[in-house]
Amino acid sequence: MLTKEYIKDLKNNSNGTIRQLVKDNRNSGSLTYILENLGQLPKNFDGSFLPDLLDHKNSMVRLWTIKTIGKLGNEEYLPILKQTALNDNDTNVRREAVSSIGRLRSKKGQNILTEILQDNDPKIVCQAIRGLLVFKGDSKVDESLKPLLNHENEMVRTIIYKEYFAEQKDKNVQPHTESYDYLKNVVVNADTIETMKLLKDESIHLTFTSPPYYNARDYSIYPSYKAYLEFLADVFREVHRITKEGRFLIVNTSPIIIPRISRSHSSKRYPIPFDIHPYLMEMGWEFIDDIVWMKPEASVKNRIGGFQQHRKPLSYKPNSVTEYLMVYRKSTEKLLDWNIRQYNCQTVQDSKVLEGYETTNVWKIDPCFDKVHSAVFPVELCKRVIQYYSYKGDLVFDPFGGSGTMGKTAKSLGRYFFLTEKDEKYFDYMKSKKSNDMFEKIETKFLYLDEFKKKIK
User: Fold this and answer.
1) Residue limits of CATH 3.40.50.150 in the chain
2) Alpha carbon distances (Å) from 1 to 19, 65, 106, 279
3) Labelling 386: which of 174, 304, 353, 376 has CA 20 to 30 A away?
4) 316 CB contacts (<8 Å, ≥6 apart)?
5) How does DSSP classify residue 215?
6) Residue with more model confidence, 83 or 215
7) In sequence order, what E strands does 295-378 have?
8) How far is Cα 278 from Cα 282, in angstroms, rounded to an integer?
9) DSSP H/E element including 96
């Protein structure tokens, strides 16, 4: 019976015993198990039986064969590794062959990796780049890698940009974890783009907002859908500029229906989340997740009523019980770990999300209703976003402040907030709610644009 202990004993017993074991066990399951459990190999390990296994029909057998050949660290296997890297019909096997060539760190291997850069599979190219970056600084290697900045594949371009072309940050800029005092717990009654243009680059940590829906409310009238999308693009372009490196933007929106003008005309449904997405990607936001906010069916407008009466095909219109939280991250060559390491241990510990957090991308949260503002963030929605995507002491921004729920929630969770709100009615509403314990525990500044300009001078 094959066991890990038996394989280990054979491997350490005498050279050639594993070869015999493989010869006696030819089915793919046994071969995979044997190769997978070989572990570290003795220096005198007899690998002469391995090349024949690369003709096996089972890709897992070939994959573990390549892994085993790679452990041998012998340049004599380079021709076999090259042939597998170029010709095997399984991407994982090919990637492992390229990885094994890279681990040899030899001049001959370097030449093979350079040749593999011309492969049609971006995953294979990325693996070859990884192997070649060990020799970064070698003029020949650098000359072969730098032109890949113009490669067709975005992952290849990202790697090359990070390694050779990324700009070094000014060491005198504000530390990543800090924010400017004149932005902390401030509400500005002004156009959000005009206000954001006054802010310095990389001023905020997180933006969570629900943009006005296209021509669905009195406060969101635009001459055309294209004009509406371009307005949002202008907003999020400024948000991108003022967002700190590698930090997040969460946009809450959903398709919207514009009612028909008469029974002889059709209503029109606009897929806002999907139409704004290309704009965001183009300006430098990296798409991370789509979270679905699900509401109780009783809380939404009934669209299914007509269909329920006659059930005629083509007329089916389901009740829309969901909205999207589209999660984006400001593009950077740095990993998330870099962002986290900027904080001290105490802040990281204090900011940890408690038990009971959501584990799926479907959040079941009841909507909120307000007699003044017709589209209010539920506190629970704000709470989750702020806890999941920021640290205590961070500055959270909402360019469409509305009734101020995001600011109130940020403050309750130990974050600072910055809100802009163009409509004076909602600005005054937030000020009036100050007396109702919304903003009063920690000082909040309510400023008109001219007052804000004076604060930042």
Assistant:
1) 181-455
2) 17, 21, 40, 60
3) 174
4) 304, 307
5) T
6) 83
7) 322-330, 362-364
8) 6
9) helix 91-104
Could you say which of 3.40.50.150, 3.90.870.40, 3.40.30.10, 1.10.1790.10 is the CATH number of the domain covering 181-455? 3.40.50.150
Structure tokens at 181: 């005092």
Spatial contact of 252 and 398, defined as CB atoms under 8 Å apart: no
Six-digit token string for 123: 């995953």
pLDDT of residue 169: 64
DSSP 15-82: TTHHHHHHHH--SHHHHHHHHHT--SPPTT---TTHHHHTT-S-HHHHHHHHHHHHHH--GGGHHHHH
Q: Tell which CATH architecture fits domain 4-165.
A: Alpha Horseshoe (1.25)
Helix, strand, or coil (residue 361): coil
Q: pTM, whole model, 2 decimals?
A: 0.76
Q: Where in the chain is the domain with CATH 1.25.10.10?
A: 4-165
- pLDDT (0 to 100) of residue 144: 96
